[in-house]
Structures are given as C-alpha cells and as structure tokens.
Hints:
Distance between the termini: 39 Å
CATH topology of the largest domain: Trna Endonuclease, Chain: A, domain 1
CATH architecture of the largest domain: 3-Layer(aba) Sandwich
Largest sheet: 4 strands, mixed
Mean pLDDT: 89
Number of strands: 6
CATH class of the largest domain: Alpha Beta
Number of helices: 11
Amino acid sequence: MLADQINAKHRYAEKIPAREIIPVLRKANSGAADGLIQYLDGHSSILDKLSDYWCRRGEASKEAFSLLRTEDEAKSDYSMVSDRALQSYGVKLEGYHKSSKALVNTVDAIVYEEQKAFEVSVNTNPQSRAAVVSGEHIWVSPRRLDGAIPGLFNPTALWEIKEYWGKTLGGSKMSDAIYELQLVGTELRLFEDEFDIHVSHFAIIDGLRQWESRKSDLRRAIDLLYSGLLDELIVGREVLTEWPRVVRECFELAHAQGKSGAKGEQQESLFE
C-alpha cells in the first residue's frame, strides 16, 4: 500500500522517510489505511523504525531475487550434490509442464549428507502432521510439512519447501504459500510464548520466473523472517551455501537435547 502510493508505476519504493508515512497513507483513501493512521497517531515513536525497516526490507528483497534460480540452474546444482535420478511432480493433464523436484531433492540430499556425522534421525517425507506433546501441553501442526529433525513427534526443527517452476507465471499459489508459512509460524510462536518451547521453523523457496512475477509475496516472506515467524529463509542458491549449516546446527541441537531417535527411521506422529 505504501509502495503503490509513493510511486505511480507501482514499483517498490526504495525508501519512505518517517515524516512522509502518514501523508502517503492518507492518499490511499481506504479503511485499512485509516486504521493504520489511527494506530500510528498513538504510536508515533515507531515511525522511524518503520522507515528503517522499509529500506532494510527492500535491500533484503533485492538480495533474495538475485539468489533465485531457473529450473535448469537448479537441476545443474542438484547434480553437484547427488548422482541419484532427479524426481518430478506428477502431472496428469496433457500439455502441462512436468516440473522437477530439483529443490526438494537437493534439500533432502544435503540433509542426508549432514546426517552422516550424527546419530540423529530425520523425516524428509512426512505422511502426518507434527506434534509437540508432554504431560503439560500438546501442539499439533495445522498442516503437513516437508521435513522434520529428528521426527514429527517432539521435533527440534521443521521446514517447508516452496519451489515453483514451469512455463507460466506465478499466481495465487504463491500467496497461498506465504499464508501457509505464516500459519505454521504463528502457531509455533504462540505455543512458544505460552510454554517456552522453541521449535525451529525454516522455509526454502525457489523459482525465478514465478517468484519474480509475485514480488510482493516474496517480500511478505521477508516480513515473516523479520517478525520471527521463520527462523531462517533459504532462497535459491542458498540451498547449497546456507542449508548445510542450518541442518548441521539442527542435528547438533537435537543430539544435545537427547532427541536422537533411531538413525534412518522416518518418525511419525499420531496426527494425520
């Protein structure tokens, strides 16, 4: 909303000085803008922070876009970490692009490579929802996720993979992906606030053509990271440079917490 008002071409505003935020919102002439103005009038001290974050968000978004890959690039990168055949998503409709699982397969290959140094299990193909349970509490994930260390029952870490390839531009599915990340992240943090139990939540995303056509959705992913709903956001080529470190830290933490499980076992929870 702020970006659209400050730039008639609807490109992302590089910066918005604190003194211009309220005037820009007034031009929006909407109920949402009016509500935000009312809030900011009573919390004027955050205007400078909002202005600073707007710039930081723009810089982070530029970096994220520079990391996104084409499907061919992702396939090539996968061949660097595994010699196994690349899987693809099943498409039954004739004429539709059969996208590869280049990101999913790369994520999994790196997970299993890092696992070799630890007696800790991992689940890279969850068939049910995650659950955190003790005598005092219970939390069940609102949806199935894409991976868990050491397993879906009392996990140390959970991750979601959002890869989009194909010949068409991205659409509402990108907004749905962000909503799914926000939903899981919000529930995890509410649970943490009440019971002081932290479960790491990661997102791994890729697909240059699709995400470039939905830039506002990728910026929302940046917001989820800075608001604490994601512990880390891995974008494109970072699956090779940052994901190994993230996975290693998760295995180390699970080992330190005594959550080893049986190595190689795909632990499931009771919740489908």
